[in-house]
Amino acid sequence: MTSGMKTPIRSALRRTMAALGALGTASMIVGCAAPTPPAATPALPFDQAVAQASESLVDQARKLPPFFLNFGKHGIVIDPMLDASSGQQTATTQRLEQRVAQRVGDGRLNAEMLPFRQTSLARATYLLTGTLTRAQEVPQRSGGALLLNLALTELKSGTVVAQSKATIRDEGLDRTPARYYADSPVMVRDRVIEGYIATTAAAVGTPADAEYLKRINVATVIDEATGLYNAEQYPESLARYDAARAGEGGEQLRVLNGLYLTYARLGRTADADDAFAKMVAYGIANNQLRVKFLFNPGTTVFWSDPKVSGPYAMWLRQIAKESATAKACMSVVGHTSRTGTEPVNDALSLQRAGFIRQRLVNENASLGERSQALGRGWRENIIGSGTDDAVDALDRRVEFRVVPCAS
Fold it and tell me: What is the pLDDT of residues 96-113, one digit of tens each?
């Protein structure tokens, strides 16, 4: 070997060893290789915004040593993407997930996209999450916009190693919830879902939410059960929800809700009542009980279709029972959709909250001294579409908020 060749070879070796050194810890991976993602751009059409965010995520990932040095194929699992405002999967989040998976798994990262299952987690290096959130600074009357967040988390270290954003015009997007969420009597956004949302918006180099990651294994079983429910395979869905609840971290709102729904679909009324009671107890303990009571327009009369309002008497009975057992003091808070004037909606939401409170007091008189009715109109809308259909059903809800008892 000539002396003229030694210098470039040594330089190459030094560069390689420096890159290898960056693999020592996740913090070094992020610090050496992953740039700060660009700021969100003006609102774009759906496909263009998804392409922009996906490309940014791929560009950041390609600079990470495992990809930069071509250390073989790395598995990536996608935890189903969510509407962050509601915690639901919708037609649009499912479309988002498909588009992102296509772009991230197109070969440039030498990555294998794996199904979100327990067996895949053992093989996967990275976890991909994504959310859509209504951009509050863009008025609904102007068409509205959604903020897209994507994040890539290294599973071993629990560190977010790439993150990207984009803003999507809300033009013709189908925000209809998937069957499980449309059928759910409660809003299932609990501490675990909030951890998913926080992880997806986290800055590069920061840890993913610990509570969320701790339950990632059981999340795969919940996803399988929910998929079976959406496909109307109720006995199989029930078996997977039972398995999820028996697993570590399985006592969570999505599981209890799934058990209630599948029992109800299978005609197991007593089991459904018991599952709903457990869901109420969980909600009261965590101060997160948001129930979808639908009323006939402009009234305090429950929705006329018994397929919708038929279970309401049981719901109220269980809410009263569990509240009394817990000796909880609470505010019964009514909400309306955006349709109509603000004064009318304020009055209507208060009337509906008062109606629900009185029904609870009728079930258990002790709740009379420990509850109050409040109305919020449409000021705390979660969806905000004003469509008065399945899309914004969560806006027409009654919340039960645990408050300190008067001395």
Answer: 999 999 999 998 888 899
Model confidence at 40: pLDDT above 90: no
C-alpha 150/C-alpha 158 separation (Å) is: 16
pLDDT at 143: 61
Task: Report how far residue 219's alpha carbon sits from residue 79's, in angstroms, rounded to the nearest whole number.
Answer: 8
Summarised one tens digit per residue, pLDDT across range 270-329 is 999 999 999 999 999 988 889 988 888 788 888 888 988 999 999 999 999 999 999 999
**HEC string of the chain?**
CCHHHHHHHHHHHHHHHHHHHCCCCHHHHHHHHCCCCCCCCCCECHHHHHHHHHHHHHHHHHCCHHHHCCCCCEEEEECCCEECCCCECEHHHHHHHHHHHHHHCCCCCCEEEECCCHHHHCCEEEEEEEEEEECCCCCHHHCCEEEEEEEEEECCCCEEEEEEEEEEECCCCCCCECHHHHHCCECCCCHHHHHHHHHHCCCCCCECCHHHHHCHHHHHHHHHHHHHHHCCCHHHHHHHHHHHHHCCCCCCHHHHHHHHHHHHHCCCHHHHHHHHHHHHHHHHHCCCEEECCCECCCCCCECCCHHHHCCHHHHHHHHHHHHHHHCCEEEEEECCCCCCCHHHHHHHHHHHHHHHHHHHHHHCHHHHCCEEEEECCCCCCCCCCCCCCHHHHHHCCEEEEEECCCC
Enumerate domains of the chain plus CATH numbers: 23-179 (3.40.50), 287-407 (3.30.1330.60)
The pTM is what?
Answer: 0.86
Confidence of residue 388 (pLDDT cuts 50, 70, 90): confident
The reported pLDDT for the residue numbered 37 is 47
Residue whose entry in the numeric block shows the structure tokens 């859509």? 132
pLDDT in tens, 204-246: 999 999 999 999 999 999 999 999 999 999 999 999 999 999 9
